[in-house]
Design goal:
Length: 114
Amino acid sequence: MSFFISDALAEGGAAAAQQGDPITALLFPLGLLALFYFFLIRPQSKRAKEHKTMTEGLKKGDEVITQGGMLGKITKVNENFILLEIAPDISINIQKSSVGALMPKGTIKEQKAD
């Protein structure tokens, strides 16, 4: 019976010696968290902030392209929606959040010339 007890104590001593410093054991998970933050979370939140400021700054006369790929000129701006003229006398209501990018002035005229 004492034979088993001595083995258990010997294994416990070996496991304690093998475990090492708890600070070095935490370095790897903390390093992974830092990598996730700098490569995934931070850039995505930065893009979301830029998109929000762009949609808040939309005004009548801006030329935009939607996330679906429609190019048009803003004719009316509400709190959540804009009226987008995609062709002469053809306008659609879209959400501000569906605007993908603000285009330079004259983009629509360049597309009509082609």
